[in-house]
Amino acid sequence: MDVSFIIPHKGREEMLLATLHSILALETDELQLEIIIVSQNVSNSDELEQLSTNQPIRIIRHQGKTISEMRNVGVTHALGQYLAFLDADVALSANWLQVMLATMAQRPNTVLVSAHQVEGDNAPPLEKIRTALSNAELDCAVTFLPGRNLFLKRDTFTKLGGFPEHLVTCEDYYFTERASQLGELFYTSAASYVHLGEDKVYQDMFHKEIWRGQSNLASIKGRTIPLREWPSFIVPPALLALLLLTVISAALGAWSLSALGLLLFFMPVAAYSWRLKRLVGASVPLSKVLQFYSMFFPARAIGTLSGALKEVKTTSHG
């Protein structure tokens, strides 16, 4: 077996089926592929059942506590010398596999490859923002790769000891940063994927960022934190504190302090928004960019605080 695709899955199947069809449509050059779905669902739809019967697809039932655990379980069933980890809501370009293998061959020091993100049809402003942020660095070595599509050799996975099962989120930061200590991480524009489940509505994004932030602090343990990552830990709680200061001061009638808090809140929001506006260009209005960071930072701070409190509670009862 040449390549094993490993996909953790839970919930509805529409996007999973789109992911599977994109894999089955890949240009393979007669490579042997297998697809392993590690699913928390108790049953399959008729369409998935028929597809798994006619194609090299295996469905492993596993009620994993984290995505990392489900990915690691998938590897125990995999036979491929290469491993492709996908989320259950991505559609790969037809040349994805060829580009992954060619990049590995042409860049001997590369241990991990990922394709760049492209927008889906009729993408709303938030999806355009997310895509632009994902593609801030392209065709170069990076210190982190998002976990939606990762390609590596099996022996690299073995050396890394698998994904960090103790993390609910941020597992891709932890895993790929550790991989960067073995060799190069390469983010290529030669192949692409559409993130079918990308954030499209700001309110939904706010709630998701709270969830995503819960493992921020836990992900620090056991890895070196690059200088460029420190703002992601410092800025969100600082901005949340300023926002609370603004609201509380206004409620107490301390208008000068409230205005100062609001000014200090919007200074970093404006700085980040200016950088992002340069990435998205004219395709996204400045108002939508400002709205993104005005919601993103407080949500991440709430998630980080929530995760820290859960860890303290778990530790105190351990």
UniProtKB/TrEMBL annotation:
The keyword Amino-acid biosynthesis does not apply. InterPro entries: Glyco_trans_2-like, Nucleotide-diphossugar_trans. It comes from the Bacteria. Keywords: Glycosyltransferase, Membrane, Transferase, Transmembrane, Transmembrane helix. The chain crosses the membrane at residues 254-274. Belongs to the glycosyltransferase 2 family. This is Glycosyltransferase family 2 protein.
